[in-house]
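User: tokens in, sequence out, please.
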């Protein structure tokens, strides 16, 4: 009554609530399906999700990646994709993946336009600026506006990626490093904000490859140096293969192993299964 407000205490019974696994972190691995024409299975993540980044999977489907919700998790199969065209897409509702798409854009056959992302200028960094400056430094033509970015396909040159202390910049541009090599990621430790062992996964994977194939470990054990080395080694394995039969399994319950990697005669290296522990 009058200028007073009476609030009765709520009667809330204890309950159990299951928090979904992070689809944003999984999308970097799903992008590999398109980038390398491989199969990627992320366990314990399903299409029936409230997370907006599920829309990123539709972008992959548009280019021929088959997305299947299996009992184990989401399977992205890009083995039938030999090339892909660019996108013209409003990513306002799933803008965390704008950087991921920007990393795929240089390898498309036609230009890409990412729209509706003006707000990402005010996130951990000005992400439109990060896209523009880093791709330009790598030799990729970019035109940025207040709320959009246009990217033209081009051969990627070696160079250094400035993360601006932004975890998503580091993780997204790592995809370019996996594809081309010769990419240095500045301050890769910034991924610890959301994906603490992102580079540890690659380091442990390639350390096993070093042991199996007699490659010497990098003398500098700092994370930055290791990250660059790991990106390059992974690229070498991928570039040596002759058959598109690599399967990348991302599993939140198991430790990192390289389950089987072997020479297949004249077919080159075949990586039949990579098992990652995404969330530590």
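Assistant: Sequence out:
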């Amino acid at each position: 009554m009058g200028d007073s407000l009476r609030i009765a205490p709520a009667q809330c019974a204890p309950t159990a609530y299951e928090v979904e696994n992070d689809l944003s972190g999984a999308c970097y691995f799903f992008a590999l399906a398109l980038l390398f024409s491989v199969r990627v299975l992320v366990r314990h993540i399903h299409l029936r999700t409230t997370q907006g980044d599920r829309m990123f999977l539709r972008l992959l489907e548009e280019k021929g990646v088959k997305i299947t919700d299996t009992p184990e998790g989401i399977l992205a199969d890009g083995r039938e994709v030999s090339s892909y065209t660019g996108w013209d897409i409003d990513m306002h509702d799933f803008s965390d993946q704008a950087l991921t798409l920007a990393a795929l854009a240089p390898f498309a056959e036609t230009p890409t336009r990412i729209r509706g992302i003006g707000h990402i200028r005010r996130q951990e960094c000005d992400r439109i600026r990060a896209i523009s400056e880093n791709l330009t430094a790598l030799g990729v033509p970019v035109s940025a506006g207040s709320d959009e970015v246009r990217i033209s396909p081009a051969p990627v040159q070696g160079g250094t990626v400035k993360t601006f202390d932004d975890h998503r910049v580091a993780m997204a541009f790592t995809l370019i490093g996996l594809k081309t090599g010769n990419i240095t990621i500045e301050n890769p430790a910034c991924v610890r904000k959301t994906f603490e062992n992102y580079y540890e996964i690659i380091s442990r994977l390639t350390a096993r490859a070093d042991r199996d194939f007699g490659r010497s470990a990098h003398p500098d054990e700092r994370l930055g140096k290791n990250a660059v080395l790991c990106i390059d080694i992974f690229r070498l394995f991928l570039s040596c293969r002759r058959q598109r039969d690599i399967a990348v399994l991302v599993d939140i319950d198991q430790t990192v192993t390289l389950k089987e990697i072997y020479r297949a005669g004249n077919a080159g290296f075949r990586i039949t299964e990579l098992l990652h522990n995404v969330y530590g």
